[in-house]
Structures are given as structure tokens and as C-alpha cells.
Amino acid sequence: xxxxxxxxxxxxxxxxxxxxxxxxxxxxxxxxxxxxxxxxxxxxxxxxxxxxxxxxxxxxxxxxxxxxxxxxxxxxx
Length: 77
Fold this sequence. Notes:
This protein is mainly alpha-helical.
């Protein structure tokens, strides 16, 4: 799988926003995108180009920063 053009830019931006973190919450992702947590959860469960996330509890998902950067690079294509 080849790297998407904006992946490194997105990864660096996310690492600056969340220094030392390996993953972020749906609230963090919503704040980055300027949307609601509900929109992020919808992106996680959709069939086409879902946002990769790990369900931690019945109401909590974690999104790895590299996966989020890759998804951001791919979602508009």
C-alpha cells in the first residue's frame, strides 16, 4: 500500500496537537475537524471508507493517530 500525498503532513499536524499520544478520542477527532462527536461516530461505523477506531467501552472509541492521519489523507479521494 503506497503512502497518500498528505499523510505525512496530517501525521505531523496531529503529533503537534497531541504530543506524546498514540491515540485520540472521538471528541479529540471532532475538535480537529470542527464537527460533532456524532459525526465522528457515524464515520467510524459507515461501510465506505470508515474511520478506523477501536471500541474500548460501549460508548468509547479510540483512534490511533497514524490511522486518523491516513484516513484524513484518503477520505476526500
